[in-house]
Structure of Glycosidase CRH2:
Amino acid sequence: MPVCKSTTYDFSKSDNVESNTKYLGDASKADWSSSGEPAPYEDSLLLTMSQGTVGTLLASTHYVWYGKVGARMKTSAGAGVVTAFILLSDTKDEIDFEFVGTDLLTAQSNFYSLGITNYDNGKNLTISSDSMANYHDYEIDWTPDQLTWSIDGKVLRTLKKSDTYNETSSRYSYPQSPARVQLSLWPAGLPSNPKGTIEWAGGEIAWDSPYMTNGYYYSQFDSVTIDCYDAPSDAQVKGSKSYKLTNKDASESDFAITDDPTVLGSFLATGLEMDEGKEEAAAASASSSGKASKTANTVPGMTGAGNGVDNHAGDTTASASQAQQSAATGSGSGSGSAASGFVQGGSSGASNMQPETVLSGSLFAVVIAIIGLCIL
């Protein structure tokens, strides 16, 4: 992938978003990959969620390895409806802003390391006015030593890496691996979700809610700003184009900056087998050239929706972001396998959508896999 640009995405154009049914790790083709059907609206972008769908997800095609990331946005509203602005790595480090639709004056901040659940990590932050009716600026400032969450320019939470040391694992439980920016709207209040998730989301979702417009819930994003910081001092610098995980421990020092490619040959490929299925995909493309598409239009988010069975069914108090991350990154699929598409809230149904698989699969399978670069 090309190096990360410190820039502002104003969402006034839709041509910088590419469906994840097409995205194969070539960040020069789009700034964002999507599941569902994000809708341009008055120089902004709506993330929509209709009945029978699992909402909409946007994920940046470049990775950020420390930086300042901000989103100017309006949330959705209603019981069971969750809007999210997060950073999520392929090794399940995570930094969250989450918004439950029944509390429009609160932003929930959270963080995870390697996807390990710790219910003491969350903290509620107060928003000065209705988060659906008004635009607010939400910002995550992430450095190797400290993490802050800000709203409208005011720092409301600070986390120091030094305060996260875990004696048992002899490791800092601090997000420290390159991550993608993710924006999403999803139905945490589906009746099929775990009881704890539904309660956290304010109850079961209603598909006849007054918060729905034109048949769907929506959140609205005006812009996203990304300022990339220098790589940490212990980074293994061997190039300038991509990040590479060199050790399954996935600590900060286990990542290298290389010139290795990141574009996959097909949806069967992985970071370990970059050209898997490339010849077959090329042959299939050639044989279908000139033929009219028979793909029917769908309502936003319908493709790949599945049946809404939660991936964390055994965890009745799992946070929504954990269900989201499992679905959005295809976690749980084996090396070289193709996971189902965007299924926030969970899905075990079949899907014709394939996720980006540059670093999918088990942690042992990604020791030499490649992800995108973000530097100044």
Remarks:
- The chain is about 5% helix and 30% strand.
- Confidence is low (pLDDT under 50) at residues 291-371.
- The first strand starts at residue 7 and ends at 9.
- Residues 65 and 231 are 7 Å apart (CA to CA).
